[in-house]
Specification:
This protein has 134 residues and is of the alpha+beta class. 46% of the residues lie in helices and 12% in strands. It contains six helices and four strands; from the N terminus they run E-H-H-H-H-H-E-H-E-E. The protein starts with a strand and ends in a 5-residue tail after the last strand. It holds the Pfam family Put_Phosphatase.
Length: 134
């Protein structure tokens, strides 16, 4: 399988939900999200909701805890592991910080698997994507 690259998107591929909506609902911000949704672009909306959650004392650990409860199809896990065992170069498109928490702790992928994720910084305890424009 040399030269084969398998790219996974996190939302609705690795987990069977949209992670933004899952986190918003799981952290109790659905009402705020629904109220702001018609008023701003998606990335601004998510940034605003995450800022409010942070102001309420929520942390990156809280976000990771909610994501850990997201549904993952065992067949997806088996397919990812099989592709890796065949020598495929696996990539995923999740924010690096959340990726590290979920992948390393859940052992969904082998620890030596290459994760080329969106770069992220932590600002006031919450993940902030770098280079992602609204």
């Amino acid at each position: 399988m040399a030269g084969v690259v398998v790219v996974f998107d996190f939302d609705k591929t690795i987990i069977d939900v949209d992670s933004d909506n899952w986190v918003v609902d799981g952290l109790g911000a659905t009402e705020l999200f629904d109220r702001l949704l018609p008023t701003m672009p998606w990335n601004t909306l998510i940034d605003t909701v995450m800022g409010e959650l942070h102001a309420q004392g929520r942390t990156l650990r809280d976000v990771a805890d909610v994501l850990r409860a997201a549904p993952i199809d065992p067949q997806v896990v088996a397919a990812i592991r099989a592709a890796y065992s065949l020598g495929c170069d696996l990539r995923e498109t999740l924010l690096r910080l959340i990726s590290r928490v979920l992948v390393e702790e859940s052992q969904l992928l082998p620890l030596d698997c290459k994760l080329e994720s969106l770069p992220v910084a932590v600002q006031d305890g919450m993940p902030m994507p770098l280079g992602v424009k609204n």
